[in-house]
Amino acid sequence: MIAVTGASGQLGRKVITTLLNTIAADNIVAAVRSSEKVADLAARGVQVRKADYAQPQTLTTALQGVEKLLLISSSEVGQREAQHQAVIDAARRAGVKLIAYTSLLHADRSPLGLGVEHRATEAALKASGIPFVILRNGWYSENYAASIAAALSHGVLLGAAGSGRIASASRQDYAEAAAAVLTTNNHAGKTYELAGDSAYTLQEFAGQIAISSGKTVSYQNLSEADFAARLKQAGLPEGLAAMLADSDSGAAKQGLFDDSHTLSQLIGRPTTPWQQTIEDTLKAL
Description:
By secondary structure, the protein is of the alpha/beta class. Helix content is 46%, strand content 15%. It folds into 2 domains: 2-137, 3-Layer(aba) Sandwich (Rossmann fold), CATH 3.40.50; 145-149 and 156-164 and 197-258 and 272-284, UDP-galactose 4-epimerase, domain 1 (Alpha-Beta Complex). Helix 9 (202-213) packs across helix 13 (274-284) and helix 10 (224-233) runs antiparallel to helix 11.
């Protein structure tokens, strides 16, 4: 039996949908806070179990009978270390035999502020005594594609990544990697650095938006502080704005670059071209 935490999220859903291609639905557990958000998965036969980071007893119950667990990192930056530790402790109590964890690309040396909690979780896994595999995910191409509508509206893509190269891949690519690790053998003890096959600067990303849309879009590079301020002006919460600006600053230091092609090797196909994500986003606007 395989359980996926954060199953109602964008990545978790894709992982479960991918798993359904090869294993029986009743062998999959969607561990979520709200069952209403995964009613469609329940309708397909997936087991839905309540799992609340703030209620450890729900975590232990949710993981009963589970052999392999995909611990998708929490979306609550600043609370991740404690939340992930609660899941690891529950997995130990439930007798889980393997934990796969979605960490950050090159977490051990990442210049991104997000790396702090990921390093703490990796250390907790190593101390747990439970066999584990670390999936160090790079950036989702969708992260930058989310800015396409605003870039078209203003004719400019804002950022603070300078000339840093970003090797992103689609959420589906990362979901297939997780599913592959959960459904095949000999992954325990391994750390995978996962990133897209090709990389780009944000100036190149803006240029591709212009080519694909037929509209004028340029890239404006800002300081980390100025970019954070502009994001707050656009209505983002201060914490999120600061995190995104810090991540761009980390990208400027090559924190989101990797050319090992480990992700494409793991999923058995080339990663989704970032240009394709731009095209798909434009079609959906």
